[in-house]
Specification:
Structural class: alpha/beta
Helix content: 40-55%
Oligomer: single chain
Number of domains: 1
Strand order of the largest sheet: 3-2-1-4-5-7-6
Mean pLDDT: 90
Order of helices and strands: HHHEHEHEEHEHHHEHHHE
Largest sheet: 7 strands, mixed
CATH topology: Rossmann fold
Bound molecules: S-adenosylmethionine
Strand content: 15-25%
């Protein structure tokens, strides 16, 4: 297990770090696999992956529909570089998924683990559905863990430390809503609307693993505002609180609950 401080890379202070993110590649990609498996779409001609990250989810789409023209969209240069390197057969392009509104529609608009990073979900999911061609589908997955101990405790460390003033607003309150919210906005515009939630219970080797997992995502906005020394202090305090919260199992491992919301809207 690497030390918490050395797990903070310089690039994670400035933007997304594809290596850090893919350290748990299997665990992060499983929800995308589960979402792809549930999509009932024979042969979508054009597919877009919104918030494609390092292309792990985009690769799954091409594997299931090899005849489709698949495009990955992201606004992180680091992620797009990793995606282009690992998936040279897929097209990747920079764009802001919060305002994305394409000229030509897609048979499948897909987004795995990205919608939680943008606000105003009513407007955004409305635009995403409008980008779906007749007969096509919008398929989305996002974590719903903002009230869980992992996120509650990182907000507590942010609010209680000497860095409190600088960390105000580092991460906006979660824009993720209850399932009913997405149903009410999308079901009336859909031929069929499917939604479900799965709690992925991640088996972690210890508290250091939880931190490493979250350094690829949720901790990023806080650590980005701290210098290296402060990042270490922040993570030490966070580790102490996590240790109190997550008692070890008989083998010393820790179980980390990770609920995720899925929905698929099929258009007429
Ligand atoms: C947690 S990763 C998900 C990566 C991949 N889809 C997967 O299934 O693992 C979230 C991605 O969303 C991207 N992202 C966040 N906000 C964005 C925005 N406003 N516009 C475009 N991409 C965004 C990030 O750069 C990051 O690559």
């Amino acid at each position: 297990m690497m030390s918490q401080q050395s797990a903070v890379t310089s690039s994670s202070r400035h933007g997304w770090d594809a290596g850090q993110y893919l350290f748990f590649a299997n665990e992060r990609t499983q929800p995308a696999l589960d979402l792809v498996a549930r999509i009932e779409s024979e042969a979508p001609a054009r597919i877009v992956d919104l918030g494609c990250g390092p292309g792990n989810s985009t690769g799954l789409l091409l594997a299931r529909w090899p005849q489709a023209a698949v495009t990955g969209i992201d606004n992180s240069p680091e992620m797009l570089a990793a995606a282009g390197r690992d998936h040279p057969d897929i097209m990747f392009a920079p764009a802001d998924i919060a305002t994305w509104s394409p000229v030509k529609r897609y048979e499948l608009v897909f987004s795995n683990a990205a919608l939680q990073w943008v606000g105003d979900h009513a407007a955004v999911v409305g635009r995403w559905l409008a980008a779906v061609a007749p007969g096509g589908a919008l398929a989305v997955q996002m974590p719903r863990n903002h009230d869980f101990a992992t996120h509650r405790l990182m907000r507590r460390v942010a609010a209680e430390g000497p860095w409190a003033a600088r960390l105000i607003g580092a991460r906006d309150p979660s824009p993720v809503k209850a399932p009913e919210f997405y149903y009410d906005r999308l079901a009336p515009l859909s031929r069929r609307f499917v939604l479900w939630e799965t709690n992925y219970i991640q088996i972690m080797d210890g508290v250091g693993d939880i931190i490493r997992w979250l350094q690829g995502t949720g901790l990023r906005p806080f650590l980005a505002r701290l210098d290296a020394q402060e990042q270490g202090n922040f993570l030490d305090r966070y580790a102490a609180l996590l240790t109190e919260e997550f008692p070890p199992q008989v083998d010393g491992r820790i179980l980390l609950p990770y609920p995720r919301l899925f929905f698929i809207a099929y258009r007429e």
